Amino acid sequence: MLIREAALDDARAIAEVHVASWRWAYRGQLPDETLAALDVAEREARWREVIPDPATIMLVAVDDEAIVGFVSGGATGDADAPPGTGALHAIYLEETAAGKGVGRALLDQATDGMRSAGLSRASLWVLEANERARRFYERSGWTWDGTRSSHQVQCAHAPIVRYVREL
């Protein structure tokens, strides 16, 4: 498996992983209608805007020439974040890549990238009900800071919690 910077030509494959990942990882946590309505073309358009942004960390995991996961990070959108705080915006894998160290490798390289960019702290939002992801982050040194919200429209306003870690 290879971890590399995402290229604009990867946008479609990233979008496909994004949609497939939501459908397996959030099954039973988000409404079926929300998952069924996910659109690869819409996600591809979004990633085509994000990938070239120099302020964004965007990495892909490639196995046998296929993208099996990705991570993105950069500036936080949290108004209450202290200076020097970055954010992990997304980390998603194909179901077949889960549990094989792919997510950990992506997460480690993204946090290294944030540290190299001069950030000293990072945050992320995760579905409160997503126990698997929460355990993954906790094993990687992230902790819930007690903040809870439901501001994520794309998550059907399901409760989400914020995790943080020092870089």
CATH homologous superfamily grouping: Gcn5-related N-acetyltransferase (GNAT)
Structural class: alpha+beta
Give the overall pLDDT as a whole number: 95
Q: What is the total domain count?
A: 1
Secondary-structure arrangement, i.e. CATH architecture: 3-Layer(aba) Sandwich
Number of separate strands: 7
Question: What overall form do the CA principal axes indicate?
Answer: globular
| CATH topology assignment | Aminopeptidase
Helix content: 25-40%
What do you see in this structure?
- The protein has 167 residues and is α+β, with helices and mostly antiparallel strands.
- It has one domain (2-120): Aminopeptidase (3-Layer(aba) Sandwich), CATH 3.40.630.30.
- Helix content is 33%, strand content 31%.
- It is built from five helices and seven strands.
- A seven-stranded mixed β-sheet has the order 1-2-3-4-5-7-6.
- Strand 2 (57-63) and strand 3 form a beta hairpin.
- Helix 1 (11-25) packs across helix 3 (40-50).
- It is globular.
- The model has no long low-confidence stretch (mean pLDDT 95).
Tell me briefly what this model is:
The protein has 167 residues and is α+β, with helices and mostly antiparallel strands. The protein has five helices and seven strands. It has a single domain, classed as Gcn5-related N-acetyltransferase (GNAT) (Aminopeptidase), CATH 3.40.630.30.
